[in-house]
C-alpha cells in the first residue's frame, strides 16, 4: 500500500440547535493509504453519509481532515481534491457526454484535455457514446459517465455513496470489475454500501459504524 492520502482525526458533527441536537458522528478517526479501497458499512442513521459529506466539504464539522498531508478544514468543496458519486448523477441533460466531461475540467480549473477525455471514456467503455445526450443512453451508461466525470479532474480521493444500489445485478457486477480496474491504477476510494458482497469483492479495509462511532476497522469483515 502507498503513502497516506487521507487522515480523519477526531471528527464530530452535531445537527440542530440547543435542546434538539442530533449527534451524527462522534470522535471518528482513521487513515486511508494511496490506492486503498475502504468500505463503510452501518445501519441507517449511523452517520455514513455525514462522514462522507464532511470529507467532501459539503458539511461543517469539528476535528481535522488532512488530504495528502494538508489540513483541508478550511478548504471549500470545489477546491478539495475529492469527487463524490451517489445514485443521483446530476449530469447536465442539455450537454453531450463529452460536454459534461469538459464542464468538470472547467469546474476544477483544469486545462481541457481531449486526450484525457478520450482515455477516460475508453477506460469506462463508453467512448462510442461521446456525442450522445444523457437521455440517449441507459442508466448504467449514465453512471459510467458520472464516474468518468468524477475521475477526469484526477482527484486524490473518490467518495462513493451507494452509487450502484439502484442498478440491476448484472450491471452492478460490471461496475465492480470497473472499480477493481481503478484500484490497480492507484485510485483511492471510500465507498458506503449495505451490500456485504460488494465489500468482499472490493474492499481492502472495512469501517463499521454504529451510532456515529467506529465499532470495527478490519481488513476482512
Ligand atoms: P446514514 O448515512 O448512516 O444513514 P446519516 O449520516 O444520514 O446516516 O445520519 C446520521 C444522523 O444524523 C441520523 O440520526 C440523521 O437523522 C441525522 N441527520 C442527518 N442529516 C441531518 C440534517 N440535515 N439535519 C438533522 N439531522 C440530520
Spell the H/E element sequence.
EEEHEEEHHHEHEHEE
Number of helices, counting only DSSP H or I runs of 4 residues or more: 6
The coarse silhouette is: globular
Major β-sheet, in short? 6 strands, mixed
Count of individual beta strands: 10
Class by SSE composition: alpha/beta
Task: Summarize the helices and strands and which ones pair or pack.
Elements: E1 4-17, E2 20-33, E3 37-42, H1 48-56, E4 62-67, E5 70-71, E6 82-85, H2 97-107, H3 114-123, H4 139-152, E7 157-161, H5 169-183, E8 188-192, H6 196-202, E9 205-210, E10 213-218
Parallel strand pairs: 3-8, 3-9, 6-7, 7-8
Antiparallel strand pairs: 1-2, 1-4, 4-5, 9-10
Helix pairs in contact: 2-4, 3-4
The structure holds adenosine-5'-diphosphate.
Structure, described:
The protein has six helices and ten strands, in the order βββαβββαααβαβαββ. By secondary structure, the chain is of the alpha/beta class. Helix 2 runs parallel beside helix 4 (139-152) and helix 3 (114-123) packs across helix 4 (139-152). 36% of the residues are buried. The structure holds adenosine-5'-diphosphate. Adenosine-5'-diphosphate binds at residues 15-16, 22, 24, 42, 44-50.
Amino acid at each position: 500500500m502507498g503513502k497516506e492520502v487521507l487522515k480523519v482525526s477526531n471528527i464530530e458533527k452535531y445537527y440542530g440547535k440547543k435542546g434538539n441536537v442530533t449527534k451524527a458522528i462522534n470522535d471518528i478517526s482513521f487513515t486511508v493509504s494511496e490506492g486503498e479501497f475502504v468500505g463503510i458499512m452501518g445501519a441507517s442513521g449511523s452517520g455514513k453519509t455525514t462522514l462522507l459529506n464532511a470529507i467532501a466539504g459539503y458539511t461543517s464539522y469539528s476535528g481535522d481532515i488532512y488530504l495528502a498531508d494538508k489540513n483541508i478544514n478550511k478548504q471549500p468543496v470545489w477546491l478539495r481534491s475529492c469527487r463524490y458519486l451517489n445514485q443521483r448523477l446530476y449530469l447536465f441533460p442539455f450537454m453531450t457526454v463529452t460536454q459534461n466531461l469538459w464542464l468538470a475540467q472547467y469546474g476544477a480549473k483544469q486545462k481541457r484535455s481531449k486526450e484525457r477525455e478520450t482515455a477516460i471514456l475508453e477506460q469506462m467503455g463508453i467512448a462510442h457514446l461521446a456525442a450522445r445526450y444523457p437521455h440517449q443512453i441507459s442508466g448504467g451508461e449514465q453512471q459510467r459517465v458520472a464516474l468518468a466525470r468524477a475521475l477526469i479532474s484526477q482527484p486524490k480521493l473518490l467518495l462513493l455513496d451507494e452509487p450502484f444500489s439502484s442498478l440491476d445485478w448484472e450491471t452492478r457486477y460490471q461496475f465492480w470489475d470497473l472499480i477493481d480496474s481503478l484500484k490497480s491504477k492507484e485510485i483511492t476510494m471510500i465507498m458506503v454500501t449495505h451490500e456485504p458482497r460488494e465489500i468482499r469483492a472490493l474492499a481492502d479495509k472495512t469501517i463499521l459504524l454504529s451510532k456515529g462511532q467506529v465499532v470495527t476497522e478490519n481488513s476482512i469483515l
